[in-house]
Amino acid sequence: MADFVRYQRTDNVAVITLDNPPVNAFSPGVAEQLYSRLDEATEDAAVEAIVLIGGGRTFTAGADIKEFGKFVSGEKSPSNSLSRVISRLEDCPKPVIAAIHGTALGGGLEVAMGCHYRVAGASATVGVPEVKLGLIPGAMGTQRLPRLCGIARAAEMCATGIMVAAREAWETGILDEIVDGDLLPDAISFAQAIVASGDTPRKTRDIDDRLGDPAENAASIERLKQQLAKRTRGQIAPAMAIQAVEAAATLSFDDAVKREAELFQECLHSEQCKGLIHIFFGERAVGKVPGIDKATARRSIETAAVVGAGTMGGGITMAYVNTGIPVVLKEIDQERLDKGLERIRKTYATSVKRGRLTSEEVERRMELISPTVDYQALSEADIIIEAVFEGMALKEQVFGELDEVAKPNAILATNTSTLDIDRIAAATKRPESVIGHHFFSPANVMKLLEIVRGKASSDDVIATSMDMAKRLGKIGVLVGNCFGFVGNRMFGPYQREAQFLLEEGADVEQVDKVLFDFGLAMGPLAVSDLAGIDVSWRIHQEIKDSIPDGMRNSLVMDKLYEMDRYGQKTAAGWYRYDGREPIPDPIVEELIEKTALEAGITRRAIADDEIIERTMYALANEGARLLEEGIALRSVDIDVVYVYGYGFPAWRGGPMMYADSVGLKKVYDRVCHFQESQGFWWEPAPLLKELAESGGSFRDYRG
Ligand code: 3H9
Fold it and tell me: Which of 36, 320, 537, 642 sits between 20 and 30 A of 554, alpha carbons compared?
């Protein structure tokens, strides 16, 4: 077994260093080795105090998340080695000081709280983010944290998983000292001062004067629960985290630890924990693209240009200037340009109002934008992102013009959400420099960037695009070129089924409510109103000729378009709107009923389960096609696209993981049933059939 824990002595202080790169997670063996090193330090008569520090970039990121799946599947028996070593730290007769740099997270902070004192570098952060994995702190953290910073603050930290900066952690009592100099020598001096004071080591479990006033705690927790009701809708771990922390006030330390263990196990065995861990690793997996690595050349990006100052162009401009990259913003005339700039200013003004930005910061960002109506002004940009209307002819024209003015090594990116990248690239004499950068609205907020590789896109353009996503604070997912790429190609069948269900007897509110309750950020019809019925109609015109004969069409949406009901922007679409508040509209209900009658569709009561099956299995079936065609690299890439671009609940792990959790045999059987009862568009994807018959899963499918 590798050496995960190093030991050395400096004068009368033993320095124990965790050394399990990249983040010193407590992988199998780490806790055991730490235990032995503590024995060694205890037995060494020359040692009077111990400093525990992390090697490399961080203290420790806590338990090894990869291990949890093995416990749940029974492959390994759950280990309590982390708790055992924390108790060993606290019971150590010599003072133990945690020296924290980087992050002390989850089990990492629990280890630090088992130490008698904590010193940290000024840039360190601490937190218990287990809830983001569908868990609660499970190594006595829910009991030690309130003993340091009070029940109210501990409940908030455990239930939200927020990271707390060193200074605030010091102010709330989690840290004892912040050092400005070199961490290790300062931590050693701190340890020697403790020795010199002659104080007996202070156990966190014995601190009983910081829990806070019961009435104030109750009020804070009530407020916290209200905040969480919306933010963590559907999730079980946040409430369990609060329950565990509250036990600190009513039970003895040992009994409360038992309660924490029960709640931790319940979370660990939940589907939600599986889903969230799948997304945690998925977020990191999507950055790994076969054939692209650190050695792949990159193009340097110091300046950008955006063509089109509409909603998308404005959002993309903000995403760039927020990162400090100057942007030339191009429109066809001054009026549109002014309107676009006004929209950007308005968005920033809202951030100032909410206290998220200062007016000075807004001015600094606005100064990074150079508005222009002249194509020549784009000639110095390292990357140009086109964000004009969704129409092939217009995009071809724009790329032809960009080809004339852009400098030789510039990346030419299109923000198209559906169109053929290769055709757009063919409008230039440099298709290797053309790539899709599909942002999601609002582009300055949404975390997903679908990076669409054309057949000629060069490796350095792909690698630079993936890096650029990170610089913008986004998650870049590389996908292949086809109509709608990953996200919108799947969204087509999903929307189709939602709209067919209306014609068959469901109402707008029912469909949206069922899917909202399933966990989606918005129901499909509310999304359609937000995205714009005119936009969907325009896309539909682009692909009309390629729709197979006999394909059933969603009839109502075209009629809404003809009635100028474009959604939120016209205050009427599937709903009518009072501001942004959707209100069910009897006119739409009548329209649906009339349309169904004319089409000869007999309406019936639609069960909620059918709404879930028809929409979710439509997603999974199309996702299976994307996988077998290689448009998506892995099923988790699809899941990440849906969680970060389409408001799919992360705790369900994304649509492919959801299908896996239902069981592909069942999904396949239902898809076959819908093919018989609905029509040929439900034909099962060959990959779905193959995996259903072989007992496989999307998750384990490797192309
Ligand atoms: C816990 O502690 C439970 C206990 O309460 C009770 C137990 C009984 N385990 O994010 P990065 C990997 S639950 C395993 O790209 P950064 C990560 O997958 C845990 N692996 O770097 C990646 O691998 P690869 C509570 C982990 O600098 C590599 O490390 N702790 C773990 O942007 C680099 O990660 C958390 O939830 C882990 N714990 O960010 C902390 N952490 O190179 C989760 C990371 O193969 N971690 N990896 O792709 C984080 O938030 C970030 O990773 C961190 C570093 C901020 C630490």
Answer: 642
Are 315 and 444 a contacting pair, CB within 8 Å?
Answer: yes
**378 secondary structure, DSSP code:** G
Residue 130 annotated in active site = yes
Question: CA-to-CA distance for 641 and 648, rounded, in angstroms?
Answer: 9
Both ends of the chain: CA-CA distance in Å?
Answer: 34
Catalytic-labelled residue, pool 32, 67, 75, 130: 130
| Residue pLDDT, tens place only, 645-694 | 999 999 999 999 999 999 999 999 999 999 999 999 999 999 999 999 99
Which residue has a Cα nearest atom 25 of ligand 1?
A: 106
> Which of helix, strand or coil describes residue 178?
strand
Q: Which residues pair with 49 in a beta bridge?
A: 13
pLDDT value at 76 more than 80: no
164 close to 225: Cβ distance less than 8 angstroms:
no
Least confidently predicted of 285-294, 531-540, 573-582, 649-658: 531-540
Which residues, including other chains, have CB under 8 Å from residue 585's CB and lie 6 or more apart? 572, 574, 575, 576
Q: Whose CA is nearest to atom 32 of ligand 1?
A: 284
Helix (H) or strand (E) holding 386: strand 383-386
Which of 4, 18, 20, 23 maximizes ligand 1 atoms within 8 Å of its Cβ, making it the mutation to test the pocket?
A: 23
Instruction: Compute the distance from residue 126 Cα to the ligand 1 centre, in Å.
Output: 13
Whole-number Å distance, alpha carbon 23 to ligand 1 midpoint, is 7
Q: Give residue 311's pLDDT.
A: 92
Ligand 1 atom index nearest CA of 107: 2
Instruction: Identify whether the C-beta of residue 386 lies closer than 8 Å to the C-beta of residue 412.
Output: yes
pLDDT at 73 > cutoff 90:
no
Q: What Cα–Cα distance (Å) separates residue 184 from each residue in 7, 24, 175, 180?
A: 14, 17, 16, 11
Q: Is the CB of 431 under 6 A from ligand 1?
A: no
Distance 283 CA to ligand 1 centre (A): 12
Burial class (CB in 10 A: 0-12, 13-18, 19+), 77: exposed
* Beta carbon of 133 within 6 Å of any ligand 1 atom: yes
Q: Choosing from 48, 67, 90, 110, which is the catalytic residue? A: 110
Query: Confidence band (pLDDT; 50, 70, 90) for 594?
Result: very high
In this prediction the pTM is 0.95
Distance, in Å, from the CA atom of 703 to the CA atom of 700, rounded to the nearest integer, reads 9
Q: Whose CA is nearest to atom 5 of ligand 1?
A: 137
Structure tokens belonging to residue 668: 């396949």
276 CA → ligand 1 middle, Å: 13
Specify the 3-state DSSP secondary structure of 151: helix
The token duo for 310 is: 């509409």
Query: How many Cβ atoms sit within 10 Å of the Cβ of residue 266?
Result: 15
> What are residue 238's phi and psi, to 5 degrees?
-60, -45
Tens digit of pLDDT for each residue in 482-498?
Answer: 999 999 999 999 999 99
The domains found in the chain, sorted by start residue, are 5-269 (3.90.226.10), 304-479 (3.40.50.720), 487-694 (1.10.1040.50)
Whole-number pLDDT of residue 239? 98
Is the distance from the beta carbon of residue 257 to the nearest atom of ligand 1 less than 6 Å?
A: no
d(CA 52, CA 14): 8
Report how far ligand 1's centroid is from the alpha carbon of 633 (Å): 23
Are 130 and 245 within 8 A, CB to CB? no
